[in-house]
User: Fold Citrate synthase from Pseudohongiella nitratireducens.
Amino acid sequence: MGSTKPLTGAGLRGQVAGKTALSTVGVSGSGLTYRGYDIKDLVEHCEFEEVAYLILKGKLPTRDELLAYKSKLKSLRRLPGELKSALENIPANAHPMDVMRTGCSMLGNLETELDFSDQEDAADRLLAIFPSIICYWYRYNHDGVRIDENTDDGSIGAHFLHMLHDETPKALHETVMNVSLILYAEHEFNASTFTARVCASTLSDMHSCITGAIGSLRGPLHGGANEAAMDMIAKFNGPDHAEREMLGMLERKEKIMGFGHAIYSESDPRNEIIKGWSEKLADDVGDSALYPVSVRCEEVMWREKRLFCNADFFHASAYHFMGIPTKLFTPIFVMSRVTGWAAHVMEQRADNRIIRPSAEYVGEAPRRVQPISERS
Ligand SMILES: CC(=O)SCCNC(=O)CCNC(=O)[C@H](O)C(C)(C)COP(=O)(O)OP(=O)(O)OC[C@H]1O[C@@H](n2cnc3c(N)ncnc32)[C@H](O)[C@@H]1OP(=O)(O)O
Ligand SMILES: O=C([O-])CC(=O)C(=O)O
Assistant:
């Protein structure tokens, strides 16, 4: 199990900030459970949509419930015309996470959650529409085409890859997307989820909560690490070069993205799973560079610093082998984590008190305002 570190100090580390029935991190099983189910068990037996149902509705679906849920999600993929126009107006050099944030916020104007009784529908709509949002913007701005977002693909992962590459994805890629979306779906009180809960605690709407969460996920210390890890490993021309560069970065006390974790102390259980798929994808594309480079990075970080790969590190090579542009890596995290965020919003609303901690004041002692004419 990925045991937890001594949790004290800055960053609210180790402080219980609320209750959740959604997941445990570093507590039991392989180290990550969703509603009591171990992540390894879920990856082995479930589709992402089943796990989304579990997270959002509280139980694993029956076969009929899953079919109905997948068909509902399929019917929610379409983009309103006003949203398409907004996406067309976002420049090609914008960061795709900013596109996701704007897309979510714009949808909140068009399909405002007027009452909390709409919350499950608002969550399902976001889950279904995020792949359409990012692919519509990307293909319009990079390839000059207006894609048809109403594909017939049976899963969210295949829908995304189909719109991105303009062809039905191969089975291996659909499987890896499925695994990846499951792995990223939920992770207790991480920074983006906590953002969503703080927003929810003011009784704000679902789109505001998710928009804020996207902003938090964007940073390289959180979801943005998969993209940053890719940028780093792409610069290494082989394992020995990677080792030399990594040692230099450590010497200069630089942060190496895709390593370490706020809660786990020895391993992130998601790493072993995505690393296995990255290796399979490397074989599939005949890679003899990026995967060995990634493995050497992992060895060096553990040997030198006892730092291990988190969920993001091997996601970088896995996504790359599937032909996904690096800048779209973190938006995939959004496509998955929206399930966890929305479930946390609903959980917060069900037992709410506004989240309002206190601060330790370290500023000036009380003093009088000097008239402006006397200030130097
Ligand atoms: C899906 C996710 O969001 S997983 C997280 C993705 N983020 C990253 O991969 C970014 C790189 N990693 C990090 O910045 C950190 O490990 C975090 C943000 C994930 C966790 O931060 P913290 O809980 O503050 O880390 P922690 O307390 O373990 O740090 C201990 C020491 O290790 C160092 N350290 C931690 N991670 C790294 C890293 N990736 N590279 C270099 N040094 C590191 C810290 O700087 C600190 O050094 P110090 O004692 O000299 O100040
Ligand atoms: O829990 C965290 O701090 C970050 C993380 O791994 C996640 O959100 O998946």
In short: The first helix runs from residue 39 to 45. Residues 187, 190, 262-263, 310-311 surround oxaloacetate ion (ligand 2) (CB under 6 Å).
